[in-house]
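hey can u check if this looks right to u? its 147 residues, i copy pasted from the old doc so theres a chance i mangled smth
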Amino acid sequence: MTETILALLAACISGSAMAVQGTLNSALSKILGLLQASWMVHLTGLLVLTVLIFVSKAGWPTAHALTPAPWYTLLGGPLNVVIVYLVIVSIPRVGVARATTAIIVGQVATAGIIDHFGLFGLRPVAFSLLKGLGLALLAAGAKLLLS
């Protein structure tokens, strides 16, 4: 398999994992509460990462290593809290398929903006008419799934 196919397969598996994760997180929130479930999700994630760092001997991130990192690269953690919380809120109200559909539309639209303007230090990738048509078809398909 080519590197591109492997990367797309990894992204597809990630999407599947997100749908399962959102479902499990929402079920946990019914037992613990919204903030408590989000906290538990992040705590268990921290524990798993701690074990992986020890097992892989990858080493801990240091303040010195973070020095060249732009401030906005550290927003992934807080954004993850927002993402997990909002997924926990949305799935019980609209269902897994509808919530995931809305998530995907939001992701692709935002990704198109990030690509087009080359935000966060990325190489710009122009948003073409064909990509616009693809996004419109995605939105139309989402509308069908959301009805």
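The chain has a mean pLDDT of 91.
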